[in-house]
Amino acid sequence: MRIVVLAKPVPDATGQERLGPDGRLDRTTTAAVVNGNDEYALEAALKLVEASPDGGEVTILAMAPANGPETLRKALAMGATRGVLVTDPALAGSCVVSTVRVLAAALRGLTYDLVLAGADTSDGGGGVVGAGVAALLGLPYLSYAARVEPADGRVRVHRITATGYDIVDAPLPALVVATQALGEPRYPSLKGIMAARSKEIVTQSVADLDLGGAEVGGAVASTRLVDSHPPAARAATRVVRGPAVEAAREVVGFLVERRLI
Amino acid sequence: MPGAIWVLGETTATGMAKISGEIATLARALGAASGREVVGLVADADPSATATSLAAFVPEVLALAVPAATGHAVVPAIAPAVAALVERESPAYLLVGATPDGRDLAGTLSALLGWGVLTNATGITWADDGPLVEMSAFGGRLLTTSAFTAERGIVTVRPGAVDGAPLAAPGAVRTVSVTATVELPQVAITGREDAAATAAPIEEARVIVAGGRGVGGPDGFGLVRDLADALGGAVGATRAAVDSGWIPYSQQIGQTGKIVKPALYLALGISGAIQHKVGMQTASTIVAINRDPDAPIGEFADMYVIGDLFEVGPAIVAELRARAG
Ligand SMILES: Cc1cc2nc3c(=O)[nH]c(=O)nc-3n(C[C@H](O)[C@H](O)[C@H](O)COP(=O)(O)OP(=O)(O)OC[C@H]3O[C@@H](n4cnc5c(N)ncnc54)[C@H](O)[C@@H]3O)c2cc1C
Ligand SMILES: Nc1ncnc2c1ncn2[C@@H]1O[C@H](COP(=O)(O)O)[C@@H](O)[C@H]1O
Predict the structure, then answer these.
(1) Which end of chain A is more exposed for a tag (fewer CB within 10 A), N or C?
(2) Is A130 in the pocket of ligand 2 (CB under 6 A)?
(3) Which pLDDT score is estimated for A78?
(4) Residue A126: left (phi > 0), alpha (psi -120 to 50), or beta?
């Protein structure tokens, strides 16, 4: 079982993101971590390979700025076999269309049975890249997986719906979007952290990719940021202390005041 | 004639998705501001019922029957036909709900058409002859406005961006057909499973009472449910509560759960971590009960009750019941 996990380095959600003079996120100075939702995909990939009778390998694929390798080390420490990092100054400011084209082109150069993506990215992504990559590569697309079961050259997925699950099925290779329901990501072990230091991270630039003539990068971005600002502060918080019965009366009074009951 | 604004209608198990009416209403405002035509599109195995529902909100709805959608995942089935129709009719902008199917469709169409996508819009205005799309980034610490660089694009819109308002007189449904020029691999639906305990859906609830780790266990959710019943609301939860197995994943609110925008969000034993906050911060009124005077949720709640939820919670239920008589 050969699996590629699409994993995006994103600004650490607990950090203070900085915007460059152009109003775009300055990805070179903000500490990056692997997008949390992509860790669920990685965990699922590692479990599938561990459970596969003939073993396999997990490749992490990321399009990110040049400081990406540091972020990918943690994914390697969790147990991935190798990393592929597409990085190029021309890709700064890329839109979804470029991201999808670049990831699809990088995948054309890899061998895999299954591609796993995350449900969305925490830095403003809208959960659309996985579908786009599948469409460009002509891969069956199985999204919102709560369970992934490959067998006999096919993959069966429990897709989360409003009322439960649709059980969907398609031939491999396929692209599956992982969710948290697949299970908590493991912490890297000390052994894993040591081993990650010597694992391979292949770096590619746009020139290394087979883009089939398609244009990519910030210069051809389909979207642009017009403005960004912090939200207006919410009105001051009313703090309530004291005995439960009085507090409850105050809460109910507040709900009445706001016409909520 | 400048390109139209299209609204892509979505079908759920119980009829048209509520969000389709919302984005149609939003599209009408953009149509009025831009002088562009607003057209609905419903593509499905049998689009007629949803097309009729959508016509309550837009003057014209295209109904595109895609037989392949029967027994198959809907997006890979309809996307090639929708892309072909877009190429033939050349609308300029496509509005889709930021729902699971809506996201899948937006991503697929973006790749097939080579169009840009702006995601999770909380509002759209019209300026400089194009839509200005408002989004919230980094867990709401930043609001951004973005635009397309060419005169075309796809926008996914969050639930609750506007209230859906039907037209005074419903629009017309027109049946269309098209020959797709690309093929996507189809994904068969071989079965369905209902979740063990399907609770009331939270996406469209006006009131949500949510429990976190502080609720302490499945029994604690009994109190959350009592409060939800007394307030006529649905039950939500944090990931900590879901991971503990106290309540199904379908009720999780936050980055990896659902994004909700109720009129009232009552939080019990929830600290207000950034990944939870992104899912509920746009609630009109937030009331939190927490025994920690310094929990982060106190910084963005409208009312913050410092106290034990097992004392304050039942007292609120009693007070509500007393009022109801
Ligand atoms: C990639 C990623 C995605 C995530 N996605 C989500 C998501 O979608 N949704 C989500 O919710 N979280 C998500 N999280 C987890 C998030 O970071 C927090 O861990 C989680 O929200 C905490 O849940 P909690 O508030 O219930 O628990 P805690 O943070 O443990 O808070 C419990 C609170 O209960 C209070 N309390 C305890 N006992 C009582 C009592 N008797 N009376 C009153 N108050 C009491 C405590 O003071 C405390 O503030 C995600 C994390 C990551 C890394
Ligand atoms: N730059 C990137 N590098 C690698 N994977 C990515 C990148 N951007 C998006 N993805 C993948 O696509 C998923 C959805 O991203 P998004 O559409 O940005 O929310 C993510 O969870 C990742 O798995």
Answers:
(1) C
(2) yes
(3) 96
(4) alpha
Ligand 1, atom 51, residue with closest C-alpha: B275
pLDDT (tens digit, 9 = 90+) per residue, A60-111? 999 999 887 888 998 999 999 999 999 999 999 999 999 999 999 999 999 9
**Dihedral sign of CA atoms B91, B92, B96, B100 in order:** positive
SS3 A253: helix
Around Cβ A238, how many Cβ atoms within 10 Å? 14
User: Which pair of structure tokens corresponds to residue B228?
Assistant: 């939800």
- Give the pLDDT mean for A15-31: 58
Is residue B196's pLDDT more than 70? no
Ramachandran area for residue B160 (φ above 0: left; ψ -120 to 50: alpha; else beta): left
Strands, E, within chain A: which ranges?
Answer: 2-6, 9-11, 32-34, 57-63, 82-86, 114-117, 141-151, 154-160, 164-171, 174-178, 201-204, 223-229, 238-240
Give the B window 119-178 contacts with A, CB below 8 Å.
119-120, 132, 135-150, 153, 156
CB contact under 8 A, A141 and B73: yes
The predicted structure's pLDDT at residue A256: 95
How many whole angstroms separate alpha carbon B24 and alpha carbon B323?
39
CB environment B58-76: b (16+ within 10 A), e (fewer) = bbbbbbbbbebbeebbbbb
pLDDT of A23 strictly over 60: no
Residue with tokens 């244009």, as numbered in its chain: A215
- Candidates B257, B15, B293, B113; CA nearest to A242 is B293
Q: Is B275 in the pocket of ligand 1 (CB under 6 A)?
A: yes
